[in-house]
Design goal:
Number of strands: 17
CATH architecture of the largest domain: 2-Layer Sandwich
CATH topology of the largest domain: Heat Shock Protein 90
Bound molecules: adenosine-5'-diphosphate
CATH superfamily of the largest domain: Histidine kinase-like ATPase, C-terminal domain
Number of domains: 4
Distance between the termini: 136 Å
Order of helices and strands: HEEHEEEHEEHHHEEEHHEHEEHEEHHHEE
Radius of gyration: 45 Å
Helix content: 40-55%
Strand order of the largest sheet: 2-1-5-4-3
Structural class: alpha+beta
Length: 472
């Protein structure tokens, strides 16, 4: 061999040697643990990253259990095994690879601590969202593009009386009242196929007992990563049934109040305008002014009831109590209401011997005026209205009776609720405020109020006031 060929060969050999050395360093430089163990479990090689494992990895040392066991198993079976193992403050996925022909096992660890943390965070977030969904006060539902229910929370179960297990997989229209389905499905399709987002869409929901609630919905549709194919729609509702009923009641109430105020106001303005005419006699003028006074008193009464109710609603109903005689106040109220109903006889039948009571006189007068006024309104002209009071142990029982239309038993319970107007007379004669005001005022005095009545025979409204305790 020529000298230069020899030189060339030596240089190539040196290169191969260098490459082999580099290769040998490869596992050593791996930032993850790499080990090789012999069949007997003794460590043949361990790179520096093995110090991250929680056992002594010096060559010559024996693998601890359970690694020893696994190494033996993979060599026997010829197939690798992966386990999760704790290192020093880190978690590793450890892969045992048998090199069967050579009779040893290569062990490769990879640090999965961050991956585990992310997984744990995801699990916590999912649990949190699951709880939020399940226990939210608002009804929440999820449906798929086939409009089948895929999730249904507790609030929805309460709203419908159906359990999630019963409705999952069923079509959403199951929850909608039959006569609203076509309309509602149009809107529901709009979200799922059309990708519409509801802000405030009203769709009623039917309970299994048949009752229907009005629900205001907002929704969002989830799409695949391309944003093209809808995956699911989630909708959250707000039950506005009561709110709607209250709004309707308010509207009706405003209409009623306006009507009730207009009638006496027309009398007042009409009477005053005519009274100003110089051509009419003094006698006629006096009569007109009487009419005007009647109208003004009616207005005053309506406004007083409205004020009392609004004070009570706002928690501002405070009593100004004084020691008073019930008879005096009943007489005053009878006189005022008598002016409004001159064709009725109002008889105050209260003994002067009745002990005085400690009440707010203005409020007691209001209770009397409301009850006597009702007694006159709902009884024929010419009939008698009687006001009476008597002592019953440590309270005074007061009553106002009439021989009027009476009230059916089924209507009696709701009488003292706001805006309750019952029977055929109700439509024309009031706004359903008098009795609720009486109830609030009587209860503010620690008393009770109730009615005894027979349709066609008349009614007796009764209320009580506790008498002052002898020592107080
Ligand atoms: P309103 O302004 O309508 O009279 P109230 O609260 O005073 O309101 O009364 C409620 C309803 O109770 C009335 O609409 C009427 O139907 C009934 N009512 C009240 N008092 C009597 C009565 N003495 N006889 C028959 N019905 C009555």
């Amino acid at each position: 061999m020529a000298a230069n060929e020899k030189k060339q060969l030596i240089s190539e050999l040196a290169q191969v040697h260098q490459q082999l050395e580099d290769l040998a360093r490869f596992p050593q430089e791996n930032p993850n643990p790499v080990l090789r163990v012999a069949r007997d479990g003794s460590i043949l090689f361990a790179n520096t990253a093995c110090s991250k494992l929680n056992f002594n990895c010096q060559p010559g040392q024996l693998l601890p259990e359970p690694y020893l066991q696994i190494a033996a198993e993979v060599l026997d079976s010829g197939s690798s095994q992966i386990i999760e193992a704790e290192g020093k403050n880190r978690i590793f996925m450890v892969n045992f690879v048998p090199i069967t022909g050579a009779g040893y096992v290569n062990i490769y660890g990879s640090d999965i601590t961050e991956h585990k943390k992310t997984e744990e965070n995801l699990r916590q977030t999912r649990d949190y969202l699951d709880n939020l969904f399940t226990y939210a006060n608002a009804p929440i539902i999820v449906w798929n593009p086939e409009l089948e229910i895929t999730r249904f929370n507790h609030a929805f179960e309460r709203l419908t009386g159906r359990s999630a297990s019963e409705v999952l997989g069923k079509k959403v229209d199951l929850l909608i009242p039959a006569d609203e389905r076509v309309e509602a499905l149009k809107k529901i399709n709009g979200t799922t196929s059309g990708g519409e987002r509801w802000e405030v869409v009203e769709i009623p929901i039917q309970h299994v007992d048949g009752s229907i609630r009005t629900i205001l919905w907002n929704s969002a549709t989830l799409f695949d990563t391309d944003g093209k194919i809808p995956l699911a729609t989630i909708a959250q509702g707000q039950d506005i049934t009561e709110l709607k009923a209250i709004n309707k009641m308010k509207d009706e109430f405003i209409g009623l109040v306006s009507h009730e105020l207009r009638t006496p106001l027309t009398v007042v303005t009409g009477a005053i305008n005519t009274a100003m005419d110089k051509r009419i006699s003094e006698e006629e003028r006096y009569e007109l002014l009487e009419d005007a006074a009647w109208g003004a008193e009616s207005l005053d009464s309506i406004l007083n009831n409205l004020l009392e109710l609004s004070r009570h609603q706002a928690g501002r109903l405070t009593l100004d109590k004084k020691t008073v005689s019930i008879r005096e106040i009943a007489d005053k109220a009878a006189l005022i209401v008598g002016n409004q109903h001159p064709k009725h006889t109002i008889r105050v039948d209260i003994s002067g011997e009745l002990p005085p009571v400690i009440v707010d006189p203005v409020r007691l007068e209001r209770i009397f005026t409301n009850l006597i006024d009702n007694a006159c309104k709902y009884s024929p002209e010419g009939s008698e209205v009687r006001v009476f009071a008597q002592r019953d142990r440590n309270e005074i029982v007061v009553g106002v009776s009439d021989h009027g239309v009476g009230i059916a038993v089924e209507d009696q319970a709701g009488l003292f609720e706001p805006f309750s107007r019952v029977g055929p007379e109700a439509r024309t004669k009031g706004i359903g405020l008098g009795l609720v005001v009486c109830k609030r005022l009587v209860e503010a005095h620690d008393g009770r109020i109730w009615v005894e009545s027979k349709p066609g025979e008349g009614s007796i409204f009764l209320f009580t006031f506790p008498l002052p305790k002898p020592d107080g």
